[in-house]
Amino acid sequence: MPTDELVLPPSLVKIQTGNAVRQPIFLVHPAGGQVYLYRDLAHYLGPEQPVYGFEAPGLDGKVQPLAQIETMATHYINAMRVVQPEGPYFLGGASLGGMVAFEMAQQLHTLGQRIALLFMMDSAGPKQLLLENTDDLTILAYVLGLGLNPELPISKEYFDHLDFEEQARYFFEHSDIANRAYSENIISHIRNFLEFYKLEIQAMNNYVPKTYPGQILFFRAHECDAFMPTHPENYWKNFATGGVDIHEIQGDHVSMNFPPHVKMMAEQLKNYL
After folding, report:
1. Do the Cβ atoms of 121 and 93 come closer than 8 Å?
2. Which residues contact 218 (CB under 8 A, 6 or more apart)?
3. How far is Cα 89 from Cα 120, in angstroms, rounded to an integer?
4. pTM, whole model, 2 decimals?
């Protein structure tokens, strides 16, 4: 049955149809569970490249979220094999998504499947993303690319008198990348979104990786922020027997995924596909 006639599992999102004769690339969501982040990357990979994304179950609050990296990986492998039953596979993801892709590669290797490409986009290792004990507004500003001290055209006194949902909406409206990275309906479910985000950060911190018998392609952000280690790729050097091929991309942990920086990442990624 052609791919475009398949009924996709709920966790699998077709980001770009591409050409059916081309092998698809599968991208795992970052913390927060949505795949909007990858639309620009898919665009710059070119219209012929099929691109799929894994969206986290539980975003709508109707099912229990997956709370372990290993469980996420197994769930997404099952979804992926509806589209592509056998390897070799192209797998990757940004931040938490890179870690889940790493675990997917591990599990697929155990199943006797081949990984043609495993790549990470500025993915920190367990306990390296320093967001624990951080207040919700700071986390929200960070994931929307506003930095630690957002400059807003209102006074701090006025902002402090807004309720949390109004503050969140203000952040969303003044973020250049918010509409590219997230659907606007997260504002009406902002507390659920943040709890979901923190649950996934906890899953990152609890993960215990094993050695991977292959190579990792690693895209590192040029600009480091207060929450990221300076060289997140160094952690993964201990777990890839084939080594880590590092490419530095302009921008920070968030902005590297959007124009103009993501175009360079896509061009380099094409060389490996």
Report:
1. yes
2. 119, 120, 123, 232, 233, 236, 244, 245, 246, 247
3. 14
4. 0.92
Q: pLDDT tens digit string along 227-251?
A: 899 999 999 999 999 999 999 999 9
Cβ contact 53:34 at 8 Å? no
Q: Of 121, 125, 95, 119, which is closest to residue 105 (Cα–Cα)?
A: 119
Is the alpha carbon torsion for 145, 142, 125, 222 positive or negative? positive
Residues forming a β-bridge with 245: 217
Phi-psi region at 147: left, alpha or beta (left = phi > 0; alpha = psi -120 to 50): left
- The whole-angstrom separation of Cα 200 and Cα 111 is 26
Which one, of 192, 191, 183, lies nearest residue 63 by Cα?
192
For the chain, which domains are there?
3-129+198-270 (3.40.50.1820)
Could you give the CA distance from residue 66 to residue 88 in angstroms, rounded to a whole number?
A: 26
Distances from the Cα of 231 to the Cα of 25, 215, 269, angstroms: 26, 17, 20
pLDDT tens digits, residue range 109-146? 999 999 999 999 999 999 998 877 788 888 888 888 88
Q: How far apart are CA 162 and CA 91, in angstroms?
A: 42
